[in-house]
Amino acid sequence: MLYDVWTVFWRDWVVLKHRMIKFILSRMVAPMLYLVAFGWGLGRSMPPIGGGSYIDFLVPGILALNSMNISFNSITPVHSERIYHKSLEEYLVAPIRPLAFIIGKILAAVLRGLISSVIIVVLAYLFGANFMITPLFVLVLIFNCIIFAEIGFGAAMTIHSYEDMGRFNTYILLPMSFLCGTFFATDKLPLAAKYFVELLPLTHTSYLLRNIGAGHDFSLLSAFVLALYMCVGLLVCIWAMRKIKE
Amino acid sequence: MIKIEGLVKKYQHKNAQNKNEWKTVVNDLNLHIEPGEIFGLLGPNGAGKTTTIRMLTMLTQATSGEIMYNGLNVKHDQEAMKALIGVVPQQINFDQDLTVGENMELHARLHHMGKENRRQRIAELLEYVELSDRVNDNVRLLSGGMKRRLLIARALIHNPKILFLDEPTVALDPQVRRRIWDLIRRMHREDVTVLLTTHYIEEAEHLCNRVAILNKGKLIALDSPKALCERVGRYVVEWDALDERDFRFFMTREAAAEFAATVDAATTIRRSNLEDVFVELTGRKVNV
Predict the structure, then answer these.
(1) ipTM
(2) CATH of domain B2-227
């Protein structure tokens, strides 16, 4: 089982190695724009939030939304491997457990999510942000990558067309990127929207990263919510792997 | 080697009235395939050949029925059964982001082969299909014939005991087709059980010990290719009648030529093929 997880991960690592420079450069663009537009542009005219500058508030949010987008989008090529290239079948006819495939793919997405997070951390420090990186901070990032890799996997295995995969990005990830406590606190939202947004995992990731990064106490409930999403996500992946054989 | 009993596959689909309905794609299929046999599964498009192969290779779950390889049952021994089989799919399904060598390496790793073993086996097979010099090229750069050869080479890396080939020579030029036939014959000499699907009776005649003919999901004939063709007559005389192409079957070329001389139209004498067998067995033309 472990060897099979490694094989699946190895394939994604080989592909990433082919494109490492392109991957790193392209991952710098969006965070740079966020930091320039919201950190420098808007942030300099905003009052300090919770004792820190807006850029200190912003960086954990960017890390949360970026790790979400990267881990989700790292796993979505499985969709074209399933629908168009059919290369997924190579795994399905091999003597490996479906769970090994799921875990290998998720780990590869986590790796990509973490590499892009490192890029943001470096850029954020260059932009003058102040935050601490602790093992717990990294663990929350890993949890976030796992959750959205699982969601990406579930979507890639069940959605039928390439256009619908794009719509998933537009209707789910994009609104979450902006509303889940990333650029502003959720209590600025109308009450019903605030409660809804606080049910979403990205809100808890933003909250946890911001508090851990600032050295404050954090809510165990948020950590529990992420763990719950992670477990449910894994069950969805297992169900999706079974469904494709029907 | 391969035992299929009461195999059924039903899919849900929307009928002409836009209502959900179950469609039976494979209907109560029973087959026993002997070790070392080259077995052909023939039939027109939509006959259920690919669905059968997909069930046999565990890509699709059967609605009911039993599939067994050497006593292993698909219901509870899937991993052990997958280790026994090699699959050459109808659609070329390489990983588009990997090179030729990396695609082969991925397959070998998925079959738990050790480093030295996989290095040696990949080199040997690439040489056999004359693609050694393309090892570092992306698979997208290969021609159609090269991709087909590589698909077979990939399926053989882990020395499978059963090889499934779904339309292995479709849309290939005759040279490549013959080359692939040679590969299949070599597998046969090495005691690999081969199950292939094909549209071409000629392919089945050249390769298969026995063939099964499927039509609309049902097995309608099971015999050697020679015996199947002899059922309808080995030769056909074709000519343009008033409003359609007419034809008649003959057991010998001489009898066919003798008849052709009596027809007051341009005639063609040819060997009987899959469609002819179908006409005889089902009483209508294929896919009409």
Answers:
(1) 0.87
(2) 3.40.50.300
